Amino acid sequence: MGISTTNPATGETVREFDALTESEVEEKVARAAAAAADHARTSFADRAQILHRAADILDADSESLASTMTTEMGKTITAAKAEIAKCAKGLRYYADNAADMLADDIADADAVNASRAFHRFQPLGVILAVMPWNFPLWQVIRFAAPGLMAGNVGLLKHASNVPQTALYLEDLFRRAGLVDGGFQTLLISSKQVEAILTDARVAAATLTGSEGAGRSIGETAGGQLKKVVLELGGSDPFVVLPSADLEKAAKVATTARCQNNGQSCIAAKRFIVHTDVYDEFARLFVENMAAQKVGDPTDDDTDVGPLATEQGRQDVVDLVDDAVSKGASVLTGGQVPDGPGWFYPPTVIADITTDMDIYGEEVFGPVASLYRASDVDDALRIANDTDFGLGSNVWTTDSSEIEQFIDDLEAGQVFVNGMTTSYPEISFGGIKNSGHGRELAKFGIHEFCNVKTVWVA
């Protein structure tokens, strides 16, 4: 896929971009290395001013930037504006809290026969960020905000279908007053990433994307003994037990599955329902999914826009068709609509068996898999029967069930009676094939720091 803006609502290519040459990449890496030395010497107060200015610029640019994001990857204009507001919040959160998060961690000096003993958090230097298209602004900001506050600098290799958003991000930090070279966008192909990651001037990398991309980056970084944070795919369970508020659960389940047109790693994808309430939940859920308005993402009242790429829609079609051919039931949706653009309707599939591809693979579109669990233990078994472990949801008012699922769900996140989402204030990340490392909160800012132990006689 070339580096271009192609409107997924129409299939029309709006702008095309040339990939950087090797010499242009070299120039940018050299600028980043020089910037890293300068930025590491700045104060927390100076860094915070930059992030606050960036947040103010985002607020001012919201209308035009939202339009660009919608044009590039098809998210609804309402969702685009909400993402921009979330990014501004994230910038301000780290601007206001990073100094405390990175204050010296005082150890017990007497216990180690010292007059002083502590841990100091220091930046690693140049961090390469390989980011996806589905949240083209937020995915980057949640790395950039803590990274820049820690004193690191960034090189961004964004997805090839959101180049204008990627270029905006570089310009954003330039306008906010960041040191020259402190945050640069690299319009490059995936094939050019390895050479950058193996460059001695690049200290570490973070990637949000597919399992395959994560393995590739992980293998390359491992060969160089470089730190990586990987946030990969998810097939998040949404468990509904008998004591749940079914109407609320079904409404939230619809939002959870259809958010961002169904293209979110932490979107609920597998809906596992206790047999005692299965029929009623299924009825409510199907009604809500069928009522979602699919259409022009620039309209304020559209619920679900197009999928971001033609291949992405075909991947969804293939998974649904495979399931149906092996006996699955489509309760709503399941048919590609006529007309231009890469639209796909909110869909609910039931009667899923382990031989169907949809059982084990992540569906990156508004398709919900519905499972009937015979009891609580069976629901937990189905929830954990996946190679992924990113987010999870459980709906119950039974305190013992809540504790059981908090302890036993194999996931990086457990949300009880609510939809999985990301907040600057709490950590984000997964286990198993969903990756490793954490973003956000204090854990995210510590990932790309040297935790230096200091002992004074």
TrEMBL record:
SUPFAM superfamilies for the chain: ALDH-like
Keyword hit for Plastid: no
InterPro entries, alphabetized: Ald_DH/histidinol_DH, Ald_DH_C, Ald_DH_N, Aldehyde_DH_dom, ALDH_GabD1-like, GABD/Sad-like
A Pfam family reported for this protein in Swiss-Prot or TrEMBL: Aldedh
Keywords for the protein's UniProt record, in alphabetical order: NADP, Oxidoreductase
Ranges for domain Aldehyde dehydrogenase: 3-454
Family classification: Belongs to the aldehyde dehydrogenase family.
NCBIfam families: PRK09406.1
UniProt-recorded name of the protein: NADP-dependent succinic semialdehyde dehydrogenase
Organism per entry: Williamsia deligens
